Amino acid sequence: MQSRKLILGGTLVTAIAALAIGQAVLQGATRQAVQAPRFEVDPMWPKPLPNHWILGSVIGVGVDSKDHVFIIHRGDSTLNQRTEAGSAAKPPLGECCAAAPPIIEFDPEGNLVRAWGGPGEGYEWPESNHGISLDDKDNVWIGGNGRLDSHILKFTHDGKFLLQIGTPKQPVNSNAMDHFGRVAKISFDARASEAYVADGYGNKRAAVIDMTTGAIKRFWGAYGNVPKDTNMGPYDPNSPPAPQFRNPVHCAEPTNDGLVYVCDRVNDRIQVFRKGGEFVKEQRVFPLTRGDGSVWDIAFSRDPQQKYIYLADGRNERVYVMERQSLSILTMFGDGGRQPGQFFAVHSIATDSKGNIYTTETYEGKRIQKFAYKGMGPVSRMNQGVLWPGRAGRRD
């Protein structure tokens, strides 16, 4: 039942021969131009933050109904007070800098609108916050992938606490009906009033909850199997496909046509299900990738058909533009580095109503980037590299 496999290349540590074969495909020496969405990085977005604020590892991005962009980051736990956040040291080492509040809202022009988040009355802030999503009412949902995080938090658009689903410090149990296991991300089917939970860094499942009550309604593992918490060991690209998800299950994204796309990150694959959990197909993406894996997060294009998938690959430092129905890669962009348009552990991805893409970077990347949509056009190179301004539309 599996779809054809994508064997496009691998990492240097895997095999030089495999890389050479993959590189010939990437360069597309005989590849005819295909039509695909085109982008270029906006190096001036967002605008500088006030108050000497800086970002830690940015591990979530979402867009509201007005195209305001929300990020969530781990400033206090991922910034070094000696070298980055000296004003927060005791005693302070200097005027600069300090971690911005965990949740930051930008308007479409990149201006800071609001910053909030962290521990408060009536709820338990995650040990390690992870993922941020906005529902159809512009409420803000977050998870957590810390060792003790087994719950979800829901806030209003401006940060008023609404709901805590589950309690912290619960054991890993992929069949639990009352708590989660280090949730990576929450996505929504507003018409059904259901939220899809990528669950996660502890559990090995996609779970569906009622958006109002938070009650778990159903869940499933890889191939629609009953999820098991057995440790399968490290991913081996030469072994048969794993019958269960590996940690982390990093996204579970429902579509307008009744499907759910799950990021099985370390297994280097997207698995597709019906909303009841019935397995439809899968696609492996650069399956020689080891370590953190290749399938980190996905976002859909905003046309009614959601024709395209944008896939963030934080190990190979690229974003893939894929045709959703066939799961084929049309083109890709990005490269490892710290300049605009490059990536250091590109982690999360989202789109706005204008077709723009927003990406965040974890580990030492610690930033958000905007890739401005430049319309449809021919793309003759599979790997476009860094989308510096002025390059959109070039066919070199």
Describe this structure in words.
This protein is 4% helix and 37% strand. The two termini are 38 Å apart. Mean pLDDT is 92; it is low at 1-30. It has helices spanning 16-27, 75-78; strands at residues 34-41, 53-54, 57-63, 69-74, 98-99, 103-106, 112-116, 129-134, 140-144, 152-155, 161-165, 183-189, 194-199, 205-210, 216-220, 249-254, 259-264, 269-274, 279-284, 297-300, 308-313, 318-323, 328-333, 346-351, 357-361, 367-379. The strands form seven sheets. Strands 1-26-25-24 form a four-stranded antiparallel sheet, with no helix packed on it. With 396 residues, the chain is mainly β. The chain has two helices and 26 strands. The protein is globular, with a radius of gyration of 20 Å. Strand 21 (308-313) and strand 22 form a beta hairpin.
Features:
disordered N terminus; mainly beta; 4% helix; single chain; four-stranded antiparallel beta sheet; 396 residues; globular
Which helices and strands occur, and which strands form pairs?
Blueprint: H1 16-27, E1 34-41, E2 53-54, E3 57-63, E4 69-74, H2 75-78, E5 98-99, E6 103-106, E7 112-116, E8 129-134, E9 140-144, E10 152-155, E11 161-165, E12 183-189, E13 194-199, E14 205-210, E15 216-220, E16 249-254, E17 259-264, E18 269-274, E19 279-284, E20 297-300, E21 308-313, E22 318-323, E23 328-333, E24 346-351, E25 357-361, E26 367-379
Parallel strand pairs: 2-5
Antiparallel strand pairs: 1-26, 3-4, 4-6, 6-7, 8-9, 9-10, 10-11, 12-13, 13-14, 14-15, 16-17, 17-18, 18-19, 20-21, 21-22, 22-23, 24-25, 25-26
